[in-house]
TrEMBL record:
It holds the Pfam family IstB_IS21. GO terms for molecular function: ATP binding; DNA binding; hydrolase activity. Keywords: ATP-binding, DNA replication, DNA-binding, Hydrolase, Nucleotide-binding, Primosome. This is Replicative helicase loader DnaC. Gene3D superfamilies: P-loop containing nucleotide triphosphate hydrolases. Residues 100-237 form the AAA+ ATPase domain. It comes from the Bacteria. GO terms for biological process: DNA replication, synthesis of primer. Belongs to the DnaC family. InterPro entries: AAA+_ATPase (IPR003593), DNAC/IstB-like (IPR028350), IstB (IPR047661), IstB_ATP-bd (IPR002611), P-loop_NTPase (IPR027417).
Amino acid sequence: MNLQYERITNLCGALNLPFVAQGYGAAVQNAAKQEVAYSDFLEELLKTEMAGRKVRQQNTLTKMAGFPAIKTLEDFNYNFAKGVKKAQIEELAGLGFVPRTENIVLVGPSGVGKTHLAIALGYRAAQAGIKTRFTTAADLMLLLTTAYRQNNMKATLHRAIKAYRLMIIDEVGYVPMNREQANLFFQVIATLYEKSSVIVTSNLPFGQWDTTFAQDTTLTAALLDRLLHHAHVVPIAGESYRLKHQRQAGLIHPVIREQM
Ligand SMILES: Nc1ncnc2c1ncn2[C@@H]1O[C@H](COP(=O)(O)OP(=O)(O)OP(=O)(O)O)[C@@H](O)[C@H]1O
């Protein structure tokens, strides 16, 4: 048994250097073979620890974000998404909007890539070390109504909303909210206003948002005011990407297509 190996492994454990422990054996052999200077060897080993920690953090943050699937900007077909300016998305992908606590609102009909872009930007953020959370409006409502009824709103807002620097709320507008839910949703947007960034996707033009928020025009106006104050609005037009192949194969009748 190599006792020094054991001692080094134990020291790495005590000092919380898992990637040094993992990589030092190979690094020692390599350094001996190539006659590397001691300081270069140490630098390389410390770099290994840094790189390992970074990957671990990226994986943790990506898992914590709760994306339903991983979508990337590299996979996004700009030719298909009408109205999306590649330069605008690339600028947003630089993530400057997060420290500036600006929001992004992706608006357009079903299947045009709103969720794809929201996830892709969120994934970039998680990879860059930004605490991100993806949720749908329906799931958020479930969480909030449960918390409200259990008199647990403060803790829930703290744990599930304020804890994130980037909050993605998908599918606002698909499920109409009652007055209680609309008030709770407003609380989320008000809580995050100028403190964190929000990415919202919606199938509804802003003029129709009151139909989702319990027909309450005053609350909807106050909500949009906060959401859009520092926001990048990305309107997306066109037909559903989900039906692209069926359309190409002529499986969708033109009348149905017009109704979509
Ligand atoms: N321009 C695009 N390039 C590549 N893939 C796309 C594009 N647009 C949509 N998709 C793909 O099509 C599917 C549906 O897209 P997505 O869920 O983003 O649409 P959506 O606008 O959010 O629709 P909905 O409002 O119904 O939720 C996804 O698998 C997505 O990756």
